[in-house]
TrEMBL record:
<keyword id="KW-1133">Transmembrane helix</keyword>
<dbReference type="InterPro" id="IPR037185">
    <property type="entry name" value="EmrE-like"/>
</dbReference>
<feature type="transmembrane region" description="Helical">
    <location>
        <begin position="20"/>
        <end position="42"/>
    </location>
</feature>
<dbReference type="Pfam" id="PF16913">
    <property type="entry name" value="PUNUT"/>
</dbReference>
<keyword id="KW-0813">Transport</keyword>
<feature type="transmembrane region" description="Helical">
    <location>
        <begin position="181"/>
        <end position="199"/>
    </location>
</feature>
<feature type="transmembrane region" description="Helical">
    <location>
        <begin position="151"/>
        <end position="169"/>
    </location>
</feature>
<feature type="transmembrane region" description="Helical">
    <location>
        <begin position="93"/>
        <end position="113"/>
    </location>
</feature>
<feature type="transmembrane region" description="Helical">
    <location>
        <begin position="314"/>
        <end position="335"/>
    </location>
</feature>
<feature type="transmembrane region" description="Helical">
    <location>
        <begin position="257"/>
        <end position="282"/>
    </location>
</feature>
<dbReference type="GO" id="GO:0015211">
    <property type="term" value="F:purine nucleoside transmembrane transporter activity"/>
</dbReference>
<dbReference type="GO" id="GO:0005345">
    <property type="term" value="F:purine nucleobase transmembrane transporter activity"/>
</dbReference>
<feature type="transmembrane region" description="Helical">
    <location>
        <begin position="62"/>
        <end position="81"/>
    </location>
</feature>
<comment type="similarity">
    <text>Belongs to the purine permeases (TC 2.A.7.14) family.</text>
</comment>
<keyword id="KW-0472">Membrane</keyword>
<feature type="transmembrane region" description="Helical">
    <location>
        <begin position="289"/>
        <end position="308"/>
    </location>
</feature>
<keyword id="KW-0812">Transmembrane</keyword>
Amino acid sequence: MSNNSVRVQEDQKARTNKRYTFLLVINYLFLFVGSLSSSLLSKFYFNHQGSSRWVSTWVQSAGFPLLLFPIYLPFYVFKCTDRRPFSHFTPRILILSILVGLMLGLNNLLFSWGNSYLPVSTSSLLLSTQLVFNLILSVIIVKQKITFQNLNCVVLLTLSSVLLALGSSHDKPQGLTRAKYFVGFFSTIGAGLLFALYLPVMEKIYKWIYCYEMVMEMQLVMEIAATALATAGMASDGGFSEMKRESLVKFDKGPEIYWVTVFSNVVTWQLCFMGTAGMVFLTSSLTGGICMTALLAMNVLGGVLVYGDEFGGVKVVSTVICGWGFCSYVYGMYLKMGEEKEMESKNHGMEMDHNVVLANNV
């Protein structure tokens, strides 16, 4: 790589750092709005006789054209970067983006299966297990250190999921068989596992990435790959003509509300994935998983308030344990940050003392 390329990379990294807080806040807002809205809209689709899980899968990635704005506006409109879009986007990064995108497409399908059968509150609580998987896979893939707080969080969230599985099988939509309930249950667990794998894999890939715009470029390729997978599945299930028929015949709120629901879901899902990618790039895969877990509590509350999901007995206990595990992890992170800050101050003080000694010797 030429010296000029290295200089551009360093400049881009510096600019990313200067706007770090702004990007962090914006991406968490995207994640918050996208996660809550997409979960409720997906359930609204299925509650009103929407039945295509491929449609529900397709909307999760079909909003990829929205990514063109954060990719092209910084260079061509805002003039806040010297890097042209897709420069230094190597074939290796392209191939990895496509492979991860296909994995993301499978994750979207599993989520759609789970969300079509389970109440929002139940699916949200089950998805909280992704933090457990995330911790384990982060240890393997990015060498995340295991602490007491980590293990405590794993045990508590696993217990929360087991309680939910044993006590919530009665909490299912009318007409849903026990077999389909458990299909939804294990599909949601599978979605959590795949998403937990996605986070540390992306953290490892992002070590080669030096600017936020490049993160969005990777996200664009991944979403295109996921959309191609979902489109192929839709084609085998009747294609877009089936969507039109569903809007006119099956959906009980009428075609206008159907298309509003579909396109609103496209936008909110894209916000969710943009926020997730940004959080992993700006922080870490584990922090991204923590943020997702924190937002799941809002999804549970949203399901109870909007759709009247049951929220008593075992589900209350499961939620309390889930919250306990999450809080213990946050507290562990707080202690770790305090230790790192103290160590940094101590090293800085030793460095100053060393410089004073050298000056005196001179």
